């Protein structure tokens, strides 16, 4: 049957055709974005952290006694942890924990213009041992001078200098050198001069969540303000047994009035991060499945309704010599045309929803052409299967039934 005639039949049932198109479009919009989010989330599992995950420990403590002198406590904690057999160095960490899912998102700008684009990055304040604890390799510039370190409880202070990862340097300055450049941290645009660049490692939750896994910066700051939480990074020798975790925790109980919240390998922190993401990804996949089932049921209902309305037309076709397969083919072609229109509309809506989610909710998502093709094929297959049963029933209509009904 000519396409022109099929289009004419579809126009005769504008209401049903429009409902099928909208149903397909909404399904494609939902399924595409859940696929984008799930893919971006699961993709992180394959990205190496480049950290010695079994040699770096995250240590988180909380202080409840307001009379404790924090500066002295930090020094005591570091000495106590470094006295544990197998520990090679310990460092205070002011900001985010390495690879942990805590901490605010930090942003870095190239200038102070309001419309300037920014980069999300992991922001770490470390003491003199921090670089060695993380195993960072400086590839340009220098390390911090001892005179550049600032320590105290005044969060408003800043050292004014920063070391950034190689990946963050390339993202901000391309092939130009970052050394000597001024960058601006957070919405307050706090100026920092870049004095060194190191090989990137996966540091911090925020950059990882934003698909900028190796974007990070380190400042020579040991600032605690009025916070109760004190974070440390500890490096242990290769092959040290896991009992070192308990030994480090025990070593921190030299002072009453605080608790040790967590002592764990960086590998464990990464697993916890990925576990949460994978749960979210599977939830998105479940939503996709539900959307497909609802769409299939809706198409079955609409096509059934359409077939019943056009039972006489199908009988006439059979009387004119059309075979059952021709009637079925006609209905499947009709469905394919509607699905195609729905796919085009659905992809347009999917892209709009993608940018809305990225710009407002800032979900982790990525548009991939193979995903769009897969969603298109999947939607067409579901809709074709949904129309198969009604089409088969329509093909069974005999000319005698139509004559009798008339």
Order of SSEs: HHEHEEEHEEEHEEHEEEHEHHHHH
Identify low-pLDDT runs. Answer: none
Proportion of residues in helical segments: 40-55%
- Mean pLDDT score: 81
Strand proportion, as a percent range, falls in 15-25%
- What does the main sheet amount to? 6 strands, mixed, barrel
Please give the radius of gyration in angstroms.
31 Å
Could you tell me how far the N terminus lies from the C terminus, measured between alpha carbons in angstroms? 25 Å
Structural class: alpha+beta
Count the beta strands.
13
Number of helices: 12
Major sheet strand order? 3-4-10-7-9-8
The outline comes out as elongated
Describe the structure.
- With 406 residues, the chain is an alpha+beta fold.
- It contains twelve helices and 13 strands.
- It has helices spanning 3-12, 14-43, 70-82, 130-134, 166-173, 205-209, 243-251, 266-309, 311-319, 324-361, 369-395, 399-405; strands at residues 56-63, 87-93, 106-109, 118-125, 138-141, 150-152, 161-165, 182-185, 190-198, 216-219, 221-223, 229-236, 258-265.
- The strands form three sheets. The chain has a six-stranded mixed β-barrel.
- Strand 8 (182-185) and strand 9 form a beta hairpin.
- Helix 2 crosses helix 10.
- It is elongated.
- The model has no long low-confidence stretch (mean pLDDT 81).
């Amino acid at each position: 049957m000519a396409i022109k005639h099929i289009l004419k039949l579809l126009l005769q049932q504008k209401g049903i055709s429009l409902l099928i198109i909208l149903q397909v479009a909404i399904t494609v919009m939902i399924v595409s974005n859940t696929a984008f989010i799930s893919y971006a989330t699961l993709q992180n599992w394959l990205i190496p952290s480049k950290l010695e995950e079994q040699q770096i420990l995250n240590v988180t403590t909380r202080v409840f006694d307001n009379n404790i002198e924090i500066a002295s406590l930090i020094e005591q904690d570091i000495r106590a942890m470094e006295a544990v057999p197998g520990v090679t160095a310990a460092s205070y960490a002011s900001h985010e924990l390495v690879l942990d899912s805590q901490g605010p998102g930090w942003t870095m700008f190239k200038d102070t213009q309001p419309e300037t684009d920014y980069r999300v990055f992991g922001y770490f304040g470390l003491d003199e041992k921090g670089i060695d604890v993380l195993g960072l390799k400086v590839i340009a510039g220098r390390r911090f001078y001892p005179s550049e370190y600032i320590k105290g409880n005044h969060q408003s202070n800043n050292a004014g200098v920063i070391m950034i990862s190689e990946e963050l340097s390339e993202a901000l300055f391309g092939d130009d050198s970052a050394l000597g450049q001024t960058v601006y941290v957070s919405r307050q645009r706090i100026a920092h001069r870049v004095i060194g660049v190191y090989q990137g490692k996966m540091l911090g939750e925020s950059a990882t969540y934003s698909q900028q896994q190796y974007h990070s910066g380190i400042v020579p700051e040991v600032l605690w303000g009025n916070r109760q939480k004190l974070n440390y990074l500890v490096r242990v020798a290769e092959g040290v047994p896991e009992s070192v975790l308990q030994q480090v925790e025990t070593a921190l109980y030299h002072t009453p009035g605080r608790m040790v919240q967590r002592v764990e390998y960086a590998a464990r922190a990464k697993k916890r991060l990925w576990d949460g993401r994978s749960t979210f990804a599977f939830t998105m996949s479940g939503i996709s499945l539900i959307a497909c089932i609802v769409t299939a049921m809706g198409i079955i209902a609409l096509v059934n309704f359409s077939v019943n309305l056009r039972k006489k037309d199908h009988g006439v076709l059979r009387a004119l010599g059309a075979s059952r397969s021709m009637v079925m083919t006609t209905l499947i072609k009709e469905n394919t045309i509607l699905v195609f229109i729905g796919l085009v509309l659905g992809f347009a809506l999917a892209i709009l929803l993608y940018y809305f989610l990225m710009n407002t909710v800032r979900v982790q998502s990525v548009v991939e052409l193979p995903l769009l093709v897969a969603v298109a094929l999947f939607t067409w297959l579901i809709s074709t299967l949904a129309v198969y049963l009604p089409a088969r029933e329509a093909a069974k209509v005999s000319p005698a039934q139509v004559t009798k009904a008339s």
